[in-house]
Write a structure and sequence with these properties.
The protein has 233 residues and is of the alpha+beta class. It is 36% helix and 21% strand.
């Protein structure tokens, strides 16, 4: 006959195994749901941009991040900013000192907004407010295999900020304050790397990855390169 202490030990053992099984099953279910969510939220560029030649409205972007990003990408595909848009002052290809955006970065801006960039860069005491429709376009390059001091073209990714009048989706505002102002962010993978494949759009919308960093540059209209050249201590 089993003694009381032995019985308690056996029961404790099976209780532990039971609890462990529940925790494992729960973790697996959470992983499966998370994976399904990631797949469901996957966003890719459109095969055809027929009929899309303008930037989206705030209404479109607040309703569907991916649809907004796809329209932005189509607009940029038509404009070809890497070839046709002006670089911001000091925005030529250079080493990137940030953790994000690849090792080399080139920064261009929609032509109609260049004069505003130049204006604010010369007025350090004036709070920057770029016009609606402004697009900041960054090309991100990896270093060459045989010379890490030079960028390997073409760009691995395109990083985009678009200022859209009134854009502030649910969950982005605190009272009258909207994190990142009217800016919509996105990254377009131009090549295959990591979990991203060519033609994939990520971090679209009010990306925490983007705006957790850019939040500190609010006085430069959330643009680090403009802010730091004017105000960085």
């Amino acid at each position: 006959m089993l003694g009381p202490s032995l019985v308690r030990g056996v029961l404790s053992y099976f209780d532990f195994r039971y609890i462990h099984a529940i925790v494992f099953a729960g973790a697996f279910l959470l992983f499966a749901v998370s994976s399904a969510s990631v797949k469901a939220q996957s966003c890719e560029i459109l095969d055809s941009c027929s009929g899309i030649d303008s930037l989206p409205t705030a209404t479109v972007c607040e309703a569907d991040d991916c649809a907004c990003a796809q329209q932005v990408e189509c607009y940029l595909r038509h404009k070809d900013p890497a070839a046709n848009w002006p670089k911001v002052p000091g925005g030529g290809i250079a080493l990137n000192y940030n953790f994000f955006h690849n090792r080399f970065i080139e920064t261009r801006i929609s032509p109609q907004s260049l004069k505003f960039w130049k204006r604010y860069s010369k007025r350090p005491n004036e709070e920057a407010d770029m016009p609606d429709g402004t697009v900041i376009f960054k090309s991100g390059y990896l270093p060459k295999d045989n010379n890490v001091a030079k960028p390997d073209k073409p760009a691995l990714s395109s990083y985009v900020f678009v200022k859209i009048d009134g854009y502030c989706p649910d969950g982005s505002s605190v009272g009258d304050f909207c994190l990142g102002g009217d800016w919509f962010s996105m990254e377009v993978a131009n090549g295959t790397y990591g979990i991203l494949s060519e033609g994939t759009i990520v971090d679209e919308g009010k990306s925490t990855k983007c705006f957790a960093c850019h939040a500190a540059a609010e006085k430069g209209d959330w643009l680090w390169q403009l802010y730091s050249k004017r105000r960085y201590p």
